[in-house]
Amino acid sequence: MAQAISEWLQAFVVAELEAVLAEHERSKKTGTLIHELDDRFSDDKSNFRSTVSSPQLTGDCRLQIVGVSSSGKAPALQLTDGFCTIRATLSESARSTLESEIEGADPTGDVFSLTGATVVSTPWGMPEGHVQLTINNLQYHYHIRKKPKQPQPIEETPKVGRLLLEMMSIRNAQIDDPGGSQSKHQSQPKESANPSRGALRAEPHTSTAQTAPSKKRPIPSLANEGFEVGGGVNLAKPSAASKADQSKPVIHQKQVIASTTSPAL
């Protein structure tokens, strides 16, 4: 008999958001870049990222697939631990592992554990994109027909919502004074700097206004195996605030986040 999945996702996400915010504060005090303090963290001024692997992630960190949608280069998954849901994309390695297990079948209901993942967080964009996972490695387990009843979107949980408000304050301060919060060391561009560890095959970051519309790409093989495909958001390009958002007072933007809810799955 398949082992039932258990609650762990919210506590994990809260711990990672608290950790990346603590590193951000420490980087301000020391005048260094966040990834120079601990290379598992990064910040591109739009998205915070924290990368986690074993032994912190164990075989008990299991998630069930409750939905699949196309998302640019790779399909996006809607995952749950039975209590919360979160949006995720797969690295090439994780995608290959999953495809070899499902053999073209609909993956909805399949359960796997995370062995490597990056938590990506931003206060901007659509609610379901405020906290996402990039799954670097996974271990497939089994299929469960029964789906959990109405799990709560991770961004709507009180603790995660509070941390997203803190992120909004940080981003608003950066918009109001883009150079004031950086040391000389931080403001000097480094052409030889490596891409952030949490970004998987990410393209160079540009603002929304500078990004040309992407050409249509073939739907990934995982999304071509006979099940319904919906619309998605490409994690590879972090969302950025529009000019209208930048002109709004901080308090007003906080109210938008607090009141916005995710569309039903």
Give an overview in words.
This protein is an alpha+beta fold. It has a single domain, classed as OB fold (Dihydrolipoamide Acetyltransferase, E2P) (Beta Barrel), CATH 2.40.50. It is built from seven helices and eight strands. A five-stranded mixed β-barrel has the order 3-4-5-7-6. Strand 3 and strand 4 (76-80) form a beta hairpin. The chain is elongated and about 50 Å long. The relative contact order is 0.20. The model is unreliable at 181-217 and 225-265 (pLDDT under 50).
Subunit arrangement of the protein:
single chain
How many separate domains make up the residues?
A: 1
Q: What is the overall shape?
A: elongated
Class per helix and strand makeup: alpha+beta
Low-confidence stretches: 181-217, 225-265
Beta strand count? 8
CATH class: Mainly Beta
